[in-house]
Amino acid sequence: EAAINRIAAGEVVERPASAVKELVENAVDAGATRIEVVVADGGRSLIRVTDDGCGIAEPDLPLALSRHATSKIDGTDLLNIHSFGFRGEALPSLGAVGRLTITSRVPGEGAAMIAVAGGRADPVRPAALNAGTVVELRDLFYATPARLKFLRTDRAEAQAVTDVVKRLAMAEPFVAFSLRDETSGQSREVFRVSSETGDLFGALHGRLRAVLGREFSENAVPVDAIREGVHLTGYAALPTYSRGAAVSQYLFVNGRPVRDKLLIGALRGAYHDFLSRDRHPAAALFVDLDPHLVDVNVHPAKSEVRFRDPGLVRGLIVSGLRHALAEAGH
Ligand code: ADP
Ligand code: MG
After folding, report:
1. Which contiguous run of DSSP H or E holds residue 253?
2. Of 73, 144, 189, 193, which one has the fewest beta carbons inside 10 Å?
3. What's the pLDDT at 10?
4. Single GO molecular-function term (predicted)?
């Protein structure tokens, strides 16, 4: 059983960045207003995510580590997925492929911690923590050496972690994020954004500036369109601010970062008349729709989605973006 769990875990946790994604999404789900991520050696030796969210009550700590245990759906409606996490697989997977400790405290109770390594959990112990949750993952894939061989250089893995944190930060402008690299005991700040205030568009614009830079934010037009209950919001850059690489494409479905071919193709289609083949449009776009109209469960890494009506979503993106660009005189 332990071996099967480790294989299944490898599907969920492909690399350090996927572990960071799961842990940060959990912190967001817990209502955190501040999320700190620390990594060392590209995340191989250490990933630590600290949040100020609701915490996990002591009796629930062992539960959080058991497969398919989730506090986020009741099992009666698997399709009705409103929060990010829904499978209850992330923590058990991380506990199967690395040395995981969770320290947590809910308001008004004492802090407690649990440790699990290679799928085997120790009993819960009392701990010291003011509030929220600290999840620490050390020695990722130590129990599955074959997986280690698939990792790229520490530098490349660290870059993937940075990219994931930036994408998640883009989706949550009201949450403060920081990312530090503590390789070789030296602490280096990689990324930091403070929480934005105001209405969603204002906050999003502020977060865009913080993550993608002033030039992007000053060349971006707001997008706000709706068709048959599918809502498209965000910012799209003017064609003059296109890039030679698709690094500035931030796409979200129901708040979840995705790298979906249909959405990328639709984005490209919207700019078709303005951009030559080698230029990529920059945009941060949020597609929000009834969870029943999209399958986010295509792959455990969850970056692809399947829309019930792909033509509708594609049409909305093309027309919504063209409209926004036309308003700006293009
Ligand atoms: P899922 O997120 O799909 O429910 P996970 O394995 O990621 O599954 O987490 C299991 C459970 O542990 C969650 O449902 C939640 O109740 C709890 N949990 C995990 N991380 C946190 C956190 N940072 N703060 C509060 N609760 C958490
Ligand atoms: Mg989760």
Report:
1. strand 249-253
2. 189
3. 59
4. mismatched DNA binding
Residues 208 and 59 in one domain: no
Last residue of a domain, one of 164, 193, 222: 193
pLDDT digits (tens, 9 = 90+) for 234-254: 999 998 877 777 678 999 999
Q: With a cut of 60, say whether residue 195 has pLDDT above it.
A: yes
**Within 6 Å (CB) of ligand 1, which residues are found?**
22, 26-27, 30, 51, 53-56, 64, 70-72, 85-91, 133
CA–CA gap between residue 125 and residue 112 (Å, rounded): 6
Q: Count the neighbouring beta carbons within 10 Å of the beta carbon of residue 290.
A: 12
| 318 compared with 330, residue with greater pLDDT | 318
Q: Rounded to the nearest 5°, which phi and psi values hold at 226?
A: -140, 140
From 175, 193, 211, the end of a domain falls on 193
Q: What is the ipTM of this complex?
A: 0.99
Q: Coil, helix or strand for 12?
A: helix
How many angstroms from the chain centroid is the CA of residue 170? 9
Could you tell me if 187 and 216 lie in one domain?
Answer: no
List the domain range (segments joined by +) for residue 100.
2-193
Q: Do 185 and 204 have their domain in common?
A: no
Average pLDDT on 98-104 reads 97
**Does residue 80 surpass a pLDDT of 90?**
no
Ligand 1: residue of 5, 12, 24, 29 to mutate (most ligand atoms within 8 A of CB) is 29
Say which ligand is closest to the CA of 105. 1
| Best of 70, 86, 175 for a ligand 1 pocket test (most atoms within 8 Å of beta carbon) | 70
Per the document, the length of the chain is 330
